[in-house]
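ok so I'm stuck.
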Amino acid sequence: MKKLFIAVSIALLSACSAPQQQQVNFTPQAVMSNSDIVTNSKFTLVSKDVRSAQYVALVDSGHNNIEPVHARQNVRIALENALASQFDSQGFTITVNSENTITLEIQESLVTVTQSALENEMKGKVLIQLTAETPKGKLVKSYTGTANRTSAFSASTQEIEQVLNDVINLVLKDIANDAELQNYMKERFHD
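replied:
not stuck anymore, here's the structure
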């Protein structure tokens, strides 16, 4: 029993001293509207993350050394909250039991980093699909944001974080300014 305790203690201590995977802050910023575009317009917001992997960046340092980077925050929840704030600022009311729904589907959110000791290249891509649905039909829209950035030396966690957040904020801005989506919701989202 004593040997088992020692073995477990050693395993736990070595796990604690193992290098921690780097993480980035995922902080999408809602685009706030200064005036309501609707009144008494309600819908239910649903979100799903259908990405094939949960990391938000892949860092390739060469020599088959590829390291995933995860977000500290839950990507789906952070995006859903930002989108909810954005729609709320436009005058929409989010409720749990509306026959009108907006489904947020996160299809891709990734920064690919290729680096050496002397330089790095980052390519960010975010792909989101929104489905606005009523009992009488639906509108499906895809929003894509991309960014490329090259700089000297290895990419820092802060640089990866900035590219990721810049790209997601571009997509949120596209959604906020999408007149077709706004008109569809304005005309049909009445309980």
